[in-house]
Design a protein that fits this description.
With 367 residues, the chain is mainly alpha-helical. The protein has twelve helices and five strands. The strands form two sheets. A three-stranded antiparallel beta sheet has the order 3-4-5, covered by helices on one side.
């Protein structure tokens, strides 16, 4: 696995992690084109419209992954606080000058491009918490200090949760995972769980449409807004064991609204069946396993926490997306990592992978 550079120093790449990510990225582009071709043709007279934009973002993401993988991950420690403050500033800007798309104000317009600060916030929180926890590991046994650490990320959770509750839940989940690693005692997390439930409860009660989602989840067939959920379930059911074939979906022809986004897993189930859905879940399972291996074998706590944070981010997001598509939980509007349409998401996901590639490289150097 070792590769020699011209300088004579030995550098190692975690090919297992890299290959798994590349498979997911390529599969995502193929499925995205199949899923979005109809919408692209109808809305923009270009069946490859969504594919072109996603390919452009993916190219930037792969470049970012390479560049980040070349930087010693320890160099990000002094910039963790600044990075977090930037995420707070960007998320605040969304509230005042954000662009509203499909009824949600989550984007900042950058000329012809749009940027979703909440995706950057996930990475900023991972680096910040990994830095704080690794520097104060001896204090993490105190539940009071754990509470102080959680308090530091509540501002970004509140800002993001205003327009994107699902991302706020992911950020809280990342925080719990990282703190649990530093203090694997269960009792304090009962209190953290109660705090998190209370926080989510407040957000649900502030806006009536969030409470309405609970009713739609229970009986989607009774509500007009349950249309997307019902059509997604029809897609999953019609796929059978091996699917109707790539490109053969009927539900993507306007029946599942914006199928290339949150509901893309339903089209995967329809076109590739239970077998294809299982393969996608297996790939994500292997990716999460690989990140866990890196986290458990990294001797330095900061590197281990970075790997665990990225693992937690991807794991929570995959579980939430598939649970929403199958109507296991209320619709939260969360994308499937590396596969759903979304340029900002793929750029920062690949940047996170670049960060962990460097962690694994340093790990192999030490061994």
């Amino acid at each position: 696995m070792a590769v020699r550079r011209q300088t004579g120093t030995k550098e190692s790449v975690d090919y297992v992690l890299l290959i798994l990510v590349l498979i997911l990225v390529v599969f995502g582009l193929v499925v995205l084109y199949s899923t979005s071709a109809y919408n692209g043709r109808v809305k923009f007279a270009d069946s490859a419209y969504y594919l072109k934009k996603q390919f452009f973002a993916t190219s930037i993401g792969l470049m970012a992954m390479y560049l980040v993988s070349q930087v010693d991950y320890r160099r990000w420690i002094p910039m963790a606080g600044v990075g977090y403050l930037i995420s707070l500033g960007l998320s605040t800007a969304v509230l005042f000058i954000g662009s509203e798309i499909n009824g949600s104000k989550r984007w900042l317009a950058l000329g012809p491009l749009s940027f979703q600060p909440s995706e950057y916030a996930k990475l900023a929180v991972v680096v910040l918490l990994a830095s704080i926890v690794s520097r104060n590991a001896s204090h993490m046994k105190s539940w009071r200090y754990m509470f102080v650490v959680i308090l530091q990320i509540l501002p970004i959770v509140g800002l993001v949760g205003t327009n994107n509750l699902s991302t706020a839940i992911i950020i809280l989940g990342i925080a719990v995972i990282l703190i649990f690693i530093a203090n694997p005692r269960f009792l304090p997390f009962v209190w953290l769980g109660a705090l998190g439930a209370g926080f989510i409860g407040i957000f649900l009660s502030v806006e009536s449409y969030r409470l309405e989602r609970l009713a739609i989840w229970r009986h989607p067939e009774l509500y007009e807004k349950g249309y997307q959920t019902m059509q997604g379930l029809y897609a999953i059911g019609s796929g059978g064991i091996f699917g109707v074939g790539l490109g053969g979906s009927m539900q993507k022809l306007g029946f599942v609204p914006e199928a290339q986004n949150d509901m893309i897993f339903s089209i995967i189930c329809e076109e590739t069946g239970l077998a294809g859905a299982f393969l996608v879940i297996l790939l994500f399972g292997l990716l999460i396993w690989r990140l866990l291996v890196i986290a458990t074998h990294t001797q330095e706590l900061f590197g281990a926490l970075l790997a665990a944070g990225v693992m937690g981010h991807i794991m929570i997001q995959v579980i939430l997306n598939i649970a929403v598509v199958t109507n296991t939980i209320p619709n939260t509007g969360i994308t499937l990592p590396f596969i759903s349409y979304g340029g900002t998401s793929v750029v920062f996901l690949l940047s996170e992978i670049g960060l962990i590639l460097n962690v694994s490289r340093q790990l192999k150097k030490e061994h």
